[in-house]
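pasting for ref
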Amino acid sequence: MTFSERGITLTTVETSHCKHRIRALYADFREKERKIADYILNHPEVIVHSTISEVAEEINVAEATVFRFCKRIGFKGYQAMKIALASENVENEMTDIHETIQESDDERTVAERVFRSNIRSLEETLSVMENDYLQQAVQLISNAKRIEFYGNGGSGVIAHDAHHKFMRTGLQTASYSDSHFQVMAASQLTEEDTAVFISHSGTNRDILQALEIAKEHGAATIGITTLAKSPLSQGVDVPLYTVSTETEYRSEALASRLAQLSIIDALYVTVSMGRKELMQQSLTEIRKAISKKRL
């Protein structure tokens, strides 16, 4: 059974969040691309009132380089990028104060900036969340005979958390963080199952191998990954994106954990709402079993 035969029609992700996408891709930019990216992030109000020629001249690059940069971050061209940039609410964007952390900062200051960084990651992830994709993911999970979650390293912890949550819904779930178990489990999936792949970079070789096997066996696939083109985001049926910013003291992967967890929570709550009676039965049995563990 193909993805379209499941009654779900995919829509193209509209790239409407220019600065979020730039931040997500920043680590992979070349020198000239970073020069353009820095100018856009630092002078968004100038960009929206400037022509491509003026921008190119200001930062001393070719117009073609600016145009290719716009294509690189997912726009048809410079004008489309300008429109998206102008639509963003600059006033409500939080300040990057977490990037000013100094080794001399006390514990309270560091904690405040880490908390604000987490808040920002959650807000930016929410702002790029595509409702169609979220609905499709809920539908695939709700209709699945079995749901499996795959992740390695830190993403493996997220996969286990997802399994822990969805077990309460009464659905058959499992999670795998070992690469050998992942390919073995993926080989047992069927057209009735859904597999969720979690990878911040979207380029993890083990995850991509498990994804390929899952697709070969007809399973529906969901990916939770960064807001950037990657083998994972392009390979799954439904991509769900996170946004996070890398700093000197904190990698993007660390900052994305809360966003990944929040996406899992959103899926869990929505699926649970549609399975209220079945979930209550499952919770009753789980609580009965857990009660035997207490003194």
